[in-house]
Amino acid sequence: MKLLFVCASLDLTQPFSATPAWWQLLKALYEIGVDVIATPYQGPAIESLWWRAEPNPAKWQGDTFKFLRDTARKVLGDRPPAHVQNTNEPPRRQERQEKDAGETSVDRAVRQIAQTLIAPLWWKHLDRILTEQPDIDAVIFLTIPLNHVVGVAGEIQRKHGKPVLYYDGDVPASLPNMQGFASGFRIYQGAHPAEYTAFISNSKGGEEALTALGARAVHTIYYGADPDVFSPVDVPAQDLDVMFYGHGREYRQQWIEAMITTPSNALPEARFAVRGTKLGDLGRAQTLPYLSFSKLREYACRSKINLCITRLAHASVYGSSSSRPFELSSMGCCIVANPYAGIEEWFEPGRELVVVHSADEAIDRYRWLLAHDTERLAMGRAARERVLKEHTFRHRARQLVDIVRRYA
């Protein structure tokens, strides 16, 4: 099978949080025998051992576009409503309608310019690739702003007869009723989901919403981990007691306070640490420096307990997978998580991780785990075994191939 991916980005230095996951997925597809071609929507084309890169046909336009959009938002303050940026609660139905699902005047201008200037470049680019390589079985748009390229998927199917799938790895946060993250694109406003052969997302609970938006068929593929990349690393000692890695309080302020701020003040004998930015008051937790990905893996393995604090947008919609539970489990970490609807789809609470429901419960669980080394280490081993059995990116790659075969 030969697949052409239009990726949001291939550049790991850019602030696209799903890019490491897409690297792992494309690598896994190569490992199971798929011929992979990747072309980035934002930033440079980056070759690897696992895929062949095609250039970004609108790189300078995209770079200029992003700069002007970010500048306009900063200068004009034209951002989503405050209730989206600063609360732990999803927006109410009435507020969504009143605010046109969070799309601002800058967002509207961005997509209108993109549809006029950038979409034609992408159609010409993909038309060339498909004409030169008619053995491509399908085209997959990987979490790019689909309202920027309206009509391109339909033209591919009309001229080349290839299925075109859209893979949204940010459901439910990307959906209009959640309004996305304050820093990101709103990708569904003005889009035509029905022009795609099928949709794939990371969220079981998001299937109904995607169907309501017009998707003709919807499939779910959860995130996973590459166990060769996210593997346990030998460390001299586990000198950290509780560690969290993540960026921003948006949608998870309540659980940062309940799982870090309050417990770190209540347990002065325990060493709490974080690696991240814009997390607010963290009590006694120390901030670790960012040095490299390999250092982050070392931090996780140095910590006796690793926290998985999932944003409410994902945690409140059933089966909305994110990368962190799989990454930490793949490294054999002992995980304590906030309530996460559908987490039992992937791991068994009480055996492969711990879920807490309050600050008091977090404090109690931390005390118990730190005092019971054998049980804590066994939990980490069980979590890694579960990943190896069910949740590697090779598992996900095979799922993706099976879905494509239905339409190719």
Explain the overall architecture.
- This protein has 408 residues and is an alpha/beta fold.
- It folds into two domains: 2-224 and 394-407, Rossmann fold, CATH 3.40.50.11930; 240-391, Glycogen Phosphorylase B (Rossmann fold), CATH 3.40.50.2000.
- It contains 14 helices and 13 strands.
- The chain has helices at 19-31, 59-76, 82-86, 93-98, 105-132, 152-160, 207-212, 253-266, 293-302, 312-315, 323-330, 359-371, 373-390, 393-407, and strands spanning 2-9, 35-42, 52-53, 138-142, 164-168, 198-201, 218-220, 240-245, 272-275, 286-287, 303-308, 335-337, 354-355.
- A seven-stranded parallel sheet has the order 3-2-1-4-5-6-7, with helices on both faces. Strands 10-9-8-11-12-13 form a six-stranded parallel sheet, with helices on both faces.
- Helix 8 (253-266) crosses helix 12 (359-371).
Summarize the structure.
With 408 residues, this protein is α/β, with parallel strands linked by helices. Helices cover 41% and strands 14% of the residues.
Strand-helix topology:
Blueprint: E1 2-9, H1 19-31, E2 35-42, E3 52-53, H2 59-76, H3 82-86, H4 93-98, H5 105-132, E4 138-142, H6 152-160, E5 164-168, E6 198-201, H7 207-212, E7 218-220, E8 240-245, H8 253-266, E9 272-275, E10 286-287, H9 293-302, E11 303-308, H10 312-315, H11 323-330, E12 335-337, E13 354-355, H12 359-371, H13 373-390, H14 393-407
Parallel strand pairs: 1-2, 1-4, 2-3, 4-5, 5-6, 6-7, 8-9, 8-11, 9-10, 11-12, 12-13
Helix pairs in contact: 1-14, 2-5, 5-6, 8-12, 11-13
Number of domains in the coordinates?
2
Average pLDDT reading: 89
This entry's quaternary arrangement is single chain
* Shape verdict: globular
Low-confidence stretches: 78-100
Q: Count every helix, treating DSSP H or I runs of 4 or more residues as helices.
A: 14
The total of beta strands comes to: 13
Which fold does the CATH topology of the largest domain refer to? Rossmann fold
